[in-house]
């Protein structure tokens, strides 16, 4: 393994860093205040400077950086098709994007659009790609992924009870989903719905993924859910009802019953992206903590020299560096061995990184005193993001279960279990 950035990743990192430092960061506090003041009942809006920044990122070639190979899709000019970076190359860019709450959307690299675009690229028909993928890649529309349901334990995807029933040349969708990220975005035009098609099939062949226009009759966003008080405008997270929603059969992605294979493929790179963004956020928190601890004085000394604060800062540095190496290792395995070879590593990072980020950000909040809990710093929002990622894309326990299963497999075989 060689963790030095490749020349093209290094060149992109330098340009991305300069773009975000010079163009986004001076405007970010005001943009975040504006977004934080938006109320869902009025509908979310994208502030005009954010749209200008998206245009600038597009023009600068800092666009669709997450795509593992340039997207060859009609209607998507070469300049917007992405540089085609390996996971290990994109990981360092995702870390840079993660320092900011807005940078990922500005560079068209935000979840869940990234995962949804990957699904359409890998499994979508030419018609689905033309209708939905091309405008997503151009950043003209946004999307949501509707799997989790309020009424069943959704960490077990075989539990999903909302239905996608095939009726002649149509699919009929019924049920309630929640935590559908991005559904509040004013540009959200397409949803990927996961529903039960054939309860008699093998448990991993019962569900289908179906493309649903956001404005299809029968789709109702009941309300937007705050994450520990944060509404996360402009995308938000919604509770969505599907009542007798009818779409043509050709809106099924892949084949009916094929949802599990698609979900698996969607989540490997997505977890590396989430984890590297969190490492960027943890780095920001440590930087803020060090500034505060050096500049603020209590009991005649800088905060850094009081109690166990030096040890806490040292621990934070060690935890971040360990976590980064673990994620780069998972990305390298994905690049060299595919998802199968990276299965344990991807679950390991999904447990280690959000917990690490939560601890580092919590330490930074504590060093900031009351300011750490206010909106004067990005720390409270950062903590909520890290905490949420211990659940989103599967809770810690499920990922520990995967790591343990793979670890035990040879011994169970040896013991004839
Ligand atoms: C901010 C945010 C964004 C999200 N975005 C999306 C999205 O865009 N689309 C979407 O479909 N979903 C999304 N989710 C939903 C998320 O993926 C689910 O919340 C998660 O998978 C857990 O499902 P659940 O909430 O039904 O918890 P449950 O399945 O009810 O689990 C609850 C708890 O039970 C315990 N548990 C479960 N399984 C095990 C096990 N095997 N061993 C031990 N303990 C276990 C764990 O403590 C777990 O936290 C999002 C969630 C959040 C918080």
Features:
417 residues, alpha+beta, four-stranded antiparallel sheet, three-stranded mixed sheet, globular, binds flavin-adenine dinucleotide
Describe this structure in words.
With 417 residues, this protein is an alpha+beta fold. Helix content is 50%, strand content 14%. It has twelve helices and nine strands. It has helices at residues 7-24, 28-36, 48-59, 87-98, 103-106, 113-123, 126-138, 259-295, 309-368, 370-373, 379-388, 396-414; strands spanning 142-146, 163-167, 170-181, 188-196, 207-213, 219-224, 237-248, 297-298, 301-302. Strands 2-3-7-6 form a four-stranded antiparallel β-sheet, with no helix packed on it. A hairpin with a 2-residue loop joins β8 and β9 (301-302). α6 packs antiparallel against α8, α9 (309-368) crosses α11 (379-388) and α9 packs across α12. The longest helix is centred in the last third of the chain and has 60 residues, at 309-368. Bound molecules: flavin-adenine dinucleotide (FAD). Flavin-adenine dinucleotide binds at residues 112, 145-148, 153-155, 179-181, 227, 237, 388, 391-395, 397-398, 401.
Task: Please summarize what this structure is.
Helices cover about 50% and strands about 15% of the residues. The chain has helices at about 5-25, 30-35, 50-60, 85-100, 105, 115-125, 125-140, 260-295, 310-370, 370-375, 380-390, 395-415; strands spanning about 140-145, 165, 170-180, 190-195, 205-215, 220-225, 235-250, 295-300, 300.
Distance between the termini: 35 Å
Helix/strand order, N-terminal first: HHHHHHHEEEEEEEHEEHHHH
Number of strands: 9
**What molecules are bound to this protein?**
flavin-adenine dinucleotide
Q: Gyration radius, to the nearest Å?
A: 22 Å
Shape: globular
User: Regarding quaternary structure, how should these chains be classified?
Assistant: single chain
How big a fraction of the residues is strand?
5-15%
Biggest sheet architecture: 4 strands, antiparallel
In helices, the fraction of residues equals: 40-55%
Strand order of the largest sheet: 2-3-7-6
Structural class: alpha+beta
List unreliable stretches of 5+ residues: none
| Average residue-wise pLDDT | 96
Tally of individual helices: 12
């Amino acid at each position: 393994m060689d963790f030095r950035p490749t020349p093209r990743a290094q060149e992109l990192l330098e340009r991305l860093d300069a773009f975000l430092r010079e163009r986004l960061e001076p405007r970010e506090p005001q943009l975040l205040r504006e977004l934080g003041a938006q109320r869902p009942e009025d509908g979310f809006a994208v502030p005009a400077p954010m749209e200008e920044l998206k245009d600038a990122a597009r023009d600068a070639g800092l666009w669709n950086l997450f795509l593992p190979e340039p997207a060859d899709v009609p209607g998507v000019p070469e300049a917007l098709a992405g540089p085609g970076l390996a996971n290990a190359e994109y990981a360092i860019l995702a870390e840079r994007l993660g320092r900011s709450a807005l940078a990922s959307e500005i560079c068209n690299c935000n979840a869940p659009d990234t995962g949804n675009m990957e699904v359409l690229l890998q499994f979508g028909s030419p018609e689905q790609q033309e209708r939905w993928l091309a405008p997503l890649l151009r950043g003209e529309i946004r999307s949501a992924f509707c799997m989790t349901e309020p009424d069943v334990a959704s960490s077990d995807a075989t539990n999903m009870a909302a239905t996608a029933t095939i009726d002649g040349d149509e699919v009929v969708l019924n049920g309630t989903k929640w935590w559908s990220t991005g559904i509040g975005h004013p540009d959200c035009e397409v949803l990927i719905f996961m529903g039960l098609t054939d309860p008699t099939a093998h448990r991993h062949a019962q569900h289908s993924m179906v493309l649903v226009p956001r404005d299809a009759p029968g789709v109702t966003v009941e309300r937007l859910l705050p994450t520990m008080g944060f509404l996360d405008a402009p995308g938000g997270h919604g509770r969505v009802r599907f009542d007798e929603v009818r779409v043509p059969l050709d809106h099924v992605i892949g084949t009916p019953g094929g949802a599990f294979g698609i979900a698996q493929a969607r989540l490997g790179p997505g977890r590396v992206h989430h984890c590297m963004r969190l490492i960027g956020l943890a780095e920001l928190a440590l930087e803020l903590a060090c500034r505060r601890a050096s500049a603020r004085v209590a009991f005649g000394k800088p905060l850094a020299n009081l109690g166990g604060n030096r040890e806490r800062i040292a621990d934070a540095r060690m935890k971040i560096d360990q976590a980064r190496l673990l994620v780069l290792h998972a990305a390298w395995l994905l690049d060299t061995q595919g998802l199968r070879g990276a299965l344990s590593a991807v679950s390991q990072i999904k447990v280690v990184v959000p917990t690490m980020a939560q601890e580092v950000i919590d330490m930074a909040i504590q060093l900031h005193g009351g300011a750490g809990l206010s909106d004067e710093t990005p720390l409270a929002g950062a903590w909520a993001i890290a905490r949420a990622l211990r659940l989103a894309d599967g809770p810690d326990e499920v990922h520990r279960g995967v790591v343990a299963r793979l670890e035990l497999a040879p011994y169970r075989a040896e013991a004839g279990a």
